[in-house]
């Protein structure tokens, strides 16, 4: 019997979508106003879900307090009120698209979640635009 446990979180961050190896014109064509050289920000909503068997001793798939603490320490503290391009080393050479942010979050959390459990990250960049990453 598998159950999914989810935790919502929130962070605010600025970013700019662009490629250093492209011209400004090519960046504008592909990324539009998201290529603003002065950056722009989002109020990101994050849902992290862990799926697995219920532990017969604790009754948990994962202790939600532990999941909450992991998200706070490794994601919110690292990303909240940051410029992702300038302040977060993960994006030094990685375009901080919603897709890439979700993968980075998944990779940061995966090492703390038991290997026999599935991990899913859903990242809302806006209320209508979101991405989901479940691993390779």
Report what the structure shows.
- The chain has helices spanning 24-31, 64-79, 84-87, 98-110; strands at 2-15, 40-53, 82-83, 118-124, 130-133.
- It has a 5-stranded mixed beta sheet.
- Helix content is 30%, strand content 30%.
- The mean pLDDT is 97.
- It has 4 helices and 5 strands, in the order E-H-E-H-E-H-H-E-E.
- It is elongated.
- With 136 residues, it is an alpha+beta fold.
- It has one domain (2-133): 6-pyruvoyl tetrahydropterin synthase/QueD (Tetrahydropterin Synthase, Chain A), CATH 3.30.479.
- It is an enzyme of class 4 (lyase).
- Keywords: Lyase, Metal-binding, Queuosine biosynthesis, Zinc.
- Pathway: Purine metabolism; 7-cyano-7-deazaguanine biosynthesis.
Task: Give a quick set of tags describing it.
136 residues, five-stranded mixed sheet, elongated, alpha+beta, Tetrahydropterin Synthase, Chain A
Q: Could you give a short account of the major beta sheet?
A: 5 strands, mixed
CATH topology: Tetrahydropterin Synthase, Chain A
Share of helical residues: 25-40%
Q: What is the straight-line distance between the termini?
A: 23 Å
Topology:
Layout lengths: L1 E14 L8 H8 L8 E14 L10 H16 L2 E2 H4 L10 H13 L7 E7 L5 E4 L3
Parallel strand pairs: 1-3
Antiparallel strand pairs: 1-2, 2-4, 4-5
Concise structural overview:
The protein is α+β, with helices and mostly antiparallel strands. 30% of the residues lie in helices and 30% in strands.
């Amino acid at each position: 019997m598998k159950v999914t446990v989810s935790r919502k979180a929130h962070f605010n961050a600025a970013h700019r979508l662009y490629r250093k190896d492209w011209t400004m014109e090519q960046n504008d064509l592909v990324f539009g106003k998201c290529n603003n050289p002065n950056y722009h920000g989002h109020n990101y909503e994050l849902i992290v879900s862990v799926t697995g068997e219920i532990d017969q001793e604790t009754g948990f798939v994962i202790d939600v307090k532990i999941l909450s603490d992991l998200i706070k320490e490794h994601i919110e503290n690292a990303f909240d009120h940051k410029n992702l391009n300038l302040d977060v080393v993960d994006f030094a050479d990685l375009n901080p698209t919603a897709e890439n942010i979700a993968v980075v979050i998944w990779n940061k959390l995966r090492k703390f979640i038991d290997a026999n459990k599935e991990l899913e990250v859903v990242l809302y960049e806006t209320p209508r635009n979101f991405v989901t990453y479940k691993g390779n």
